[in-house]
Amino acid sequence: MVIDCEHVWREVSNYLDGEVVPELRAAIEEHARGCKHCTAVLDGMRNVVELYGDERMMEVPVGFSRRLHQRLEADMSPSRRTFLGWAVAAAASVLVAGGIEVARSSVFSSAVLRSEHSRTSSHVPPDMMVIVVQEGKTFHVAGCPFIHDKTQLRTIPAQQAEQEGYAACVRCMKKYLDTTASAGPNRGKDVFAGEDSSRG
After folding, report:
1. Tell me, what's the pLDDT at 89?
2. Distance between CA 73 and CA 80 in Å, rounded?
3. Phi and psi dihedrals of 126, rounded to 5?
4. CB of 35 within 8 A of CB of 5?
5. Would you say 130 and 160 are in contact if contact means Cβ atoms under 8 Å apart?
6. What is the pLDDT of residue 35?
7. pLDDT band at 190; cut points 50, 70, 90
């Protein structure tokens, strides 16, 4: 199996989590041996996962903050204490806000939709289990008659499906679709029924 850089990038998370089939794992490793860019992506992603997965990184000993402030106040002149206090508060605020933003959005959250005609599905419950086809472009509810290749099905949470670039099936997931964010010239139209979906 020969793969390109784009395929490696699409599967980097699954590869690092050990969730790829042995053939794909071998193909990714073979590609990475000859591609410095993909090797750097894999190593960088592995480091990010390791750093953010290490709970000890965020642990601070009890009383640390109090002792730090006492030491800083003892070492600073009164005029610098006020400035330092504001600077420390601002830096801490930036770090906390940045940490929250990083935690809220992972590097995988800006997945490119697999189809240029996809609609966003911001109202699908993230823990809802959906069906995807390995090389498909959409995710479906169980029993959807529009699932084409039933030999390569996976059941995953909707949030993961969206992170992997799958879009909601416009037929079986219709009630969850955000019709105002539809891509292409049919914005706000139900492409399959020929009706304006904004009318209800």
Report:
1. 80
2. 9
3. -60, -30
4. yes
5. no
6. 92
7. very low
